[in-house]
């Protein structure tokens, strides 16, 4: 039987990809953020997951406003990265866990989530930066992915509560998957930041602390706010925390926090990384 | 959290968050041509064509006069007022080598150094 080994939540700021390309991980500006991945690397080396189920938002690489799904699930056997227009190097493609994708799709539609399915999908920095952070320098990438895209671009966004419910339904699908894979759940984006408007540069450390403290034991406390509440509290792009909420849902009811890191600023963002062990791992270890 | 209620005002039946564009259906409809042009800048050949003939490129995407003026003036707030979404506008900014601190500085009326310092000053001990 497949096993959900744990979850990783992390910022996906494009500038992190630039810092990796330039080898700046130990520069004073970057080191406090990259150091947050040391426990993640140690844990991944021990856990050796085969598949990463990734909740993220596309930033105008794969999806344009002509067709903007609220929730989209990748169903490809390969996902290519591509030029996003502002200079990040194009990363090597990542394999897709295609059969698991269709299992998740079957389960989600069965649970009345009316998702979009994508047999061809480009993945942007919101996938490639976290993969580089988790498995630096690895070629080929050691995991296959199931990408799950949440609309954070065009309002109305899905409610945070609906994102949590989606994540929980994905978690049920993973629990019933008969494959032998070891699965890690990723949620990317956030925390507080705002790129646009006169409030550009807005960061809210108090709200971020609330999210960091609640996402493990009580994600419903974050998900009770509306998407617009979160825009106000975390910034227009800080609303990407709904990707974290969905990922947390997919980890199952019981999680134990293994590490967290929070650092202001990376680019315009309050950057954060969290690592969780999940209930199935906890039982296996007992 | 209580802060949400304190800062929010209603404007024309819609919730308005000070200094914070909410890219909703109305904005997405208004900004479609501009955002579509910016989406085309994922392709390096299109970025080169824009630099070669900005007027012709903007005309091909049928920008509104307001959008064309905002692009001509490199005015990010005006682009947003014309329906631009920052994820797409970032691709236009990238053509000019501008990053999100440059864009943030312009929108807040700060120098780029002051904007970067404002970000650093939010660091916790």
Number of strands of chain B: 2
The greatest interface between two protein chains, and residues involved on each side, is: A-B, 46 and 53 residues
Tell me the total number of β-strands of chain A.
Answer: 10
CATH class of chain A: Alpha Beta
Coarse morphology of chain B: globular
Assembly annotation: heterodimer
**Which regions of chain A have little confidence, pLDDT < 50, spanning 5+ residues?**
none
Query: Helical proportion of chain B?
Result: 55-70%
Shape field of chain A: globular
Largest sheet of chain B: 2 strands, antiparallel
Top CATH class of the domain at 22-98 in chain B: Mainly Alpha
Q: Give the full name of the CATH homologous superfamily of the domain at 22-98 in chain B.
A: Dioxygenase LigAB, LigA subunit
Which residues of chain B form runs of ≥5 with pLDDT under 50? none
Q: How does the helix and strand content of chain A classify structurally?
A: alpha/beta
CATH-defined topology of chain A:
Protocatechuate 4,5-dioxygenase, Chain B
Order of strands, main sheet of chain B, comes to 1-2
If you compute it from the alpha carbons, what radius of gyration of chain B comes out, rounded to the nearest whole angstrom?
A: 17 Å
Distance between the termini of chain A: 18 Å
Number of domains of chain A: 1
Structure characterization notes:
The complex is a heterodimer of chains A (286) and B (125). With 286 residues, chain A is an alpha/beta fold. Chain A has one domain: LigB-like (Protocatechuate 4,5-dioxygenase, Chain B). Helices cover 35% and strands 21% of the residues of chain A. Chain A has helices spanning 14-21, 31-34, 38-47, 98-110, 125-134, 160-175, 205-214, 219-223, 227-234, 241-250, 279-285; strands at 3-10, 51-56, 71-74, 78-79, 94-95, 116-118, 144-150, 182-188, 255-266, 269-278. In chain A, the strands form two sheets. Chain A has an eight-stranded mixed β-sheet, sandwiched between helices. In chain A, strands 4-5 form a two-stranded antiparallel ribbon. Chain A is globular. The two termini of chain A are 18 Å apart. In chain B, α3 (32-40) packs across α8. A two-stranded antiparallel sheet of chain B has the order 1-2. Chain B contains ten helices and two strands. The longest helix of chain B has 10 residues, at 86-95. Chain B has a domain at 22-98: Dioxygenase LigAB, LigA subunit (Protocatechuate 4,5-dioxygenase, Chain A). Chain B has 125 residues and is mostly helical. In chain B, β1 and β2 (14-16) form a beta hairpin. Chain B has helices at 2-7, 25-30, 32-40, 44-52, 54-60, 65-72, 76-81, 86-95, 100-108, 112-120; strands at 9-11, 14-16. Classes of the chains: A alpha/beta (286), B mainly alpha (125).
């Amino acid at each position: 039987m497949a096993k959900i080994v744990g979850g990783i939540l992390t910022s996906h700021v494009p500038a992190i990809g630039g810092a990796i390309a330039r080898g700046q991980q130990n520069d004073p500006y970057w080191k406090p953020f990259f150091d947050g991945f040391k426990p993640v690397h140690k844990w991944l080396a021990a856990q050796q997951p085969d598949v990463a189920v990734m909740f993220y938002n596309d930033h105008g690489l794969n999806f344009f406003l002509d067709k903007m799904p609220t929730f989209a699930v990748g169903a490809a056997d390969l996902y290519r990265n591509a030029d996003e227009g502002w200079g990040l190097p194009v990363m090597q493609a990542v394999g897709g866990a295609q059969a698991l994708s269709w299992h998740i799709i079957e389960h989600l539609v069965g649970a009345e989530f009316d998702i979009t399915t994508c047999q061809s999908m480009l993945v942007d920095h919101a996938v490639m930066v976290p993969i580089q952070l988790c498995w630096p320098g690895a070629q080929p990438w050691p995991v296959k992915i199931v990408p799950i895209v949440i609309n954070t671009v065009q309002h109305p966004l899905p409610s945070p509560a609906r994102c949590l419910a989606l994540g929980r339904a994905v978690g049920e699908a993973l629990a019933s998957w008969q494959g032998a894979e070891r699965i890690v759940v990723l949620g990317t984006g956030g925390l507080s930041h705002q790129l646009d408007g006169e409030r550009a540069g807005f960061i809210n450390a108090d709200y971020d602390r609330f999210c960091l403290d609640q996402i493990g034991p009580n994600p419903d406390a974050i998900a009770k706010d509306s998407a617009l509440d979160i825009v106000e509290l975390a910034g227009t792009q800080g609303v990407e925390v709904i990707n974290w909420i969905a990922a947390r849902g997919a980890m199952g009811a019981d999680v134990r926090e293994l590490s967290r890191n929070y650092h202001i600023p990376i680019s315009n963002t309050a950057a954060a990384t969290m690592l969780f062990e999940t209930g199935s791992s906890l039982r296996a270890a007992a | 959290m209580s802060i949400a209620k304190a800062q929010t005002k209603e404007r024309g039946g819609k919730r308005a968050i000070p200094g914070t564009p909410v890219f909703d259906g109305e904005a997405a409809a208004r900004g479609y041509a501009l955002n579509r042009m910016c989406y085309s800048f994922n392709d390096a050949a299109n970025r080169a064509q824009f630099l070669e003939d900005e007027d012709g490129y903007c005309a091909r995407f049928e920008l509104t006069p307001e959008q064309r003026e905002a692009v001509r003036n490199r005015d990010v707030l005006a682009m947003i007022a014309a329906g631009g979404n920052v994820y797409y506008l970032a691709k236009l900014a990238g053509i000019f080598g501008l990053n999100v601190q440059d864009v943030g500085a312009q929108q807040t009326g700060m120098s780029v150094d002051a904007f970067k310092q404002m970000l650093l000053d939010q660091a916790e001990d």
